[in-house]
Amino acid sequence: MYKRIFCSLFMLALVNSVATAGVIVGGTRIIFHGEKKETAISVANPDDHAWLIQSWVESPDKNKAPFIFSPPLFRLDSQQKNVLRLIYTGTPLPQDRESLFWANIKSIPSASSEENILQIAIKTQIKLIWRPASLEKTVHRSEMAKLSWSWQQGKLQVNNPTPYYMNFHSIDVNGKAIADMKWVAPFAVKQYALPQLARSGKVSWRLINDYGAITRPFEATYSSHSK
Q: What separation, in Å, do the N-terminal and C-terminal C-alpha atoms of the chain show?
């Protein structure tokens, strides 16, 4: 019995240690400016063994996206670094707002000659936001402050009148945090379950900017009559 428990704990520790390894992706998001045909992101291997790197892009509904990685599959040796080129294929996208996709970078371990070694492929998924050339290259704080809030049938509603995706780090209503806030799309509204039943109050939110940094808080009041 004790041997079985020890083996289980050993395997759990091994899985945890492997799951935190893998390549390091040089960014938490990719902003693809519309005037460019391609951009790049780095991948580095800090481990003492090689990884096979497989990369692809998909739309939020898991369909094919108008972007390809080059190279899509390659070997990254120990302590080495490489650059992935991300190429826009030219399929038309909306010119008045941003478009969201997912960039996937999977690290597949090379075959090991050792026995009883658990090898796990690790996938990193980051946002790929295509920003048309007609928009500003950087989302300014003045744009982020344009979000408006209201009470709608027992839920908190946020309205995004801008052409940019607003990615939330946190939303607090009367000092209580809202869970699973994610983002609100351009020219869209989104509703959240309130942490407490209140037709009016103060909402505070922080966003994640183009560089993956967290903004200073924004504050506004909301009510059932807000617009």
A: 64
- Written out in words, the top-level CATH class of the domain with range 22-131 is mainly beta
* H-helix or E-strand spanning residue 30: strand 29-33
The amino acid at 149: W
Q: Could you tell me how many residues make up the chain? A: 227
Longest dimension (CA), the chain: 67
Which class does domain 141-223 fall in?
mainly beta
Helix, strand, coil: what percent of the chain each, to 5?
A: 10, 45, 45
Residue (of 33, 43, 44, 48) closest to 104 by Cα position = 43
Q: What is the average pLDDT across 49-73?
A: 94
Rounded Cα–Cα distance for residues 94 and 131 (Å): 9
Mean pLDDT to the nearest integer, 6-30: 57
Instruction: Tokens 């780090």: give the residue.
Output: 169
Token pair of 61, please? 């509904």
Tokens describing residue 224: 């059932």
β-strands 122-131, 29-33: how paired? parallel
Percent of the chain with pLDDT over 70: 85
Every domain range in the chain assigned CATH 2.60.40.10: 22-131, 141-223
Element (H, E) at 1: none
Which residue has 């909301």 as its token pair?
222
Helices (H), the chain: 2-19, 141-144
